[in-house]
Amino acid sequence: MTLSGDMLIGQRAVRGTAGTLQAINPASNEKFGPDFGVGGSAEIDQACTLAQQAFDGYRSCSAEQRAQFLETIASGILALGAELISRASQETGLPAVRLMIERSRTVAQLRLFAGIARSGQYLGATLDSALPERIPPRADLRLRKIALGPVAVFGASNFPLAFSVAGGDTAAALAAGCPVIVKAHGAHLGTSELVGRVIQAAVASCCLPDGVFSLLIGDGNQFGQDLVSHPAIKAVAFTGSRQGGLALMRTAALRREPIPVFAEMSCINPMFLLPAALAARAPQIAAGFVEALVTGVGQFCTSPGLLLAIDGAPLLQFLAAAVSALQNKAAGTMLTASISNAYANGVGRLNEMVSVRLLGKGLAAKNGCSAQAALFVTDAATFLATPQLEDENFGPSALIVACRDAEEMQTVAEYISGQLTATLHMDSADHDLARKLLPTLERKAGRILVNAYPTGVEVSHAMVHGGPFPASSDSRSTAVGATAIERFLRPVCYQDLPAELMPPELRDENPLGLWRILNGECVRT
Questions:
Q1: How confident is the model at residue 2 (pLDDT cuts 50, 70, 90)?
Q2: What distances in angstroms separate CA 352 from CA 306, 355, 358, 516, one per listed residue?
Q3: I want to staple 471 with a disulfide (CB 3.0 to 4.6 A). Which of 47, 60, 126, 418 is the partner?
Q4: Can you tell me the distance from the alpha carbon of 281 to that of 49, in angstroms, rounded to the nearest whole number?
Q5: What's the pLDDT band for 525 if we cut at 50, 70, 90?
Q6: What is the pairing mode between strands 306-310 and 397-403?
Q7: Is 264 a catalytic residue?
Q8: Is-contact 236 260, C-beta < 8 A?
Q9: Cα separation of 9 and 21, whole Å?
Q10: Whether 198 contacts 164, CB under 8 Å
């Protein structure tokens, strides 16, 4: 497929006239073509108007139509073959193997949501029969969830496929019946166009309304603010920095009609190394931790950035093993120069803190966008007295906090802010301490792991990839997993609606064969 550098607005390719951007290979710092035309307010309005016009037609499509649409996108992404992987690798510096795994995950997400659409369970069909003889009488009441409206999706820097144009946010919104407008991330414009053209072709082949999907290219923060401000947009999905997420949240809140922003932002994913586990297998835990730390050059939102353990000989053994493993880890190319510079500055700030000690580093960086892994240690008193130590340093660095005892570990657990994940490394002798920590961790994190590492995020029905602020803007939602669709739905109740006007999922005869709540009982009749 030949790249044009155009935006995709409905079924048209539109050349932006507000300037141009080029892709940059972070490993070589070289720019390469084509030139991508940058859009402005006119292109935003075109895409949003089309999406608004498409909304009622698209949300009225059958579940089977939406499912086939998602599956067509999945097949189209696979059909791009090596071209997609090659372009994504050029633009991100990520190895082909990593990108092929990410492509598989992207396809799996699309197929998962196709199945969710077919099942109809997300509709929450609920029927309360009329009770005319009751005092007071009860009307016939029926509830279903409907799509919110057009959704603005912001592509993420660190996942050019799985959190981008056809990523989880897009898949969930399309499954719910919402048209999607994607703002392509500047770090992978060509990859975005390739995937965008697949979705555009799927809209046409599935005979869906024009405006179900658009891909925009914008330069600077104002473009994103203008997209969120457009009155046609009814929800926003964002993965990125806390600063960026908060800016979009403020814009959405100040609209004449405020809208929800589902932003996945910053966290440090604490790991609690409990005493018995650390005494029994400190070297093994250390080896696994270092592998998780450097995976993807630490550019995962679930990368472990904070470890807590009780001071003593087992912790010293862990530190020695971690430093030994780390010093042989090669520096990796980061996604962009700005991310690399921010990481280097973060490491520099930690180095300057008197009560924080550098334990060890990985191999030296080879180019300007490379990141050298780093491991630091401090004590709990310093951590509790230094708020900036809780800031995320996006990349392969982590801070170990040595606690005097289990009580101080619990104090630190209470202190930390909202997280995507919290991990317990424990043995059976640690269960009493784990039992005390769990209520706190449940309040702090969206996912709690045991004897594992948080970087793997399974695409499944039970997965939660969200958490209390600042991990995400809404702790009730998830960006990954089946329940991600809930972000783009709202309930509607129908009171005494005539049978001939009733939506199929709420009709007495249940023509779709759905599981429904009928007078408080889950039935399929």
A1: confident
A2: 18, 9, 10, 60
A3: 418
A4: 59
A5: confident
A6: parallel
A7: yes
A8: yes
A9: 18
A10: no
Quote the pLDDT of residue 29: 87
Of the candidates 99, 100, 105, 103, the one whose C-alpha atom is nearest the C-alpha of residue 463 is 105
Tokens of 294: 């450097």
Give the burial class of 292: count Cβ atoms within 10 A of its Cβ; 0-12 exposed, 13-18 middle, 19 or more buried.
Answer: buried
Encode burial over 91-120: b for 16+ CB neighbours within 10 A, e otherwise: bbbbeeeebbebbebbbbbbbbbbebbbeb
Neighbours of 356 (CB within 10 A): 18
Place of tokens 């424990």: 426
- Cβ distance 113 to 146 under 8 Å? no
The residues, ordered by sequence, that sit 6+ positions from 49 with a Cβ below 8 Å of its Cβ are 211, 232
Q: What count of other Cβ atoms lies within 10 Å of the Cβ of residue 163?
A: 30
Residue 370 corresponds to which tokens in the numbers above? 């490379």
Model confidence at 412, pLDDT cuts 50, 70, 90, reads very high
Spell out the residues 6+ positions from residue 499 whose beta carbon is closer than 8 angstroms to its own.
Answer: 507, 508
Which of 48, 301, 369, 403 does the annotation list as catalytic? 301
**Which position among 91, 193, 264, 390 bears the catalytic label?**
264
Question: What's the whole-number mean pLDDT along residues 467-483?
Answer: 96
Is 48 designated active site?
no
User: Which residues lie below 8 Å from residue 233, measured CB to CB, with a gap of 6+?
Assistant: 48, 149, 150, 151, 152, 181, 227, 259
| Mean pLDDT over the full length of the chain | 96
CA angle 117, 193, 99 (to 5 degrees): 75
| Crossing angle of the two packed helices 189-205 and 82-92, in degrees rounded to 10 | 150
Phi, psi of 264, rounded to the nearest 5 degrees: -100, 120
Nearest one of 419, 385, 424, 415 to 307, comparing CA atoms: 424
Tell me, letter by letter, the H, E, C secondary structure of 58-86: HHCCCHHHHHHHHHHHHHHHHHCCHHHHH
Tokens, residue 358: 């550098």
CA separation (Å) from 137 to 26, 241, 492, 521? 68, 53, 21, 21
